[in-house]
Specification:
It contains 2 helices and 3 strands, in the order αβββα. By secondary structure, the chain is an alpha+beta fold. The protein has one domain (10-69). Strand 1 (25-27) and strand 2 (33-36) form a beta hairpin. The two termini are 21 Å apart.
Length: 78
């Protein structure tokens, strides 16, 4: 984990930490941040992570599903 603040909701923090272990990068954007897939090209996937979602469990599942749908999962960047 780089210099990323911990997410205030433990469910979302766990998903973000798991994504980082898979090579995703976090960047401060918007209210809390955005995750970028390991594919460094213009067509790489990105997922917004809300800082104060209405339902943290649902938001964590949404982020997890978006990460699972990424077709660049096996790449280590290019």
């Amino acid at each position: 984990m780089a210099d990323r603040p911990r997410h205030p909701h433990k469910e979302i923090e766990a998903v973000v930490a798991d994504a980082e272990s898979k090579g995703w990068r976090w960047r401060k954007m918007g209210h809390w941040g955005r995750l970028f897939c390991p594919h460094a090209g213009r067509d790489g996937c990105q997922v917004g992570v809300n800082g104060t979602p209405k339902n943290p469990e649902d938001h964590a599942r949404q982020v997890m599903r978006a990460i699972a749908r990424c077709p660049h999962g096996g790449e280590q960047g290019s």
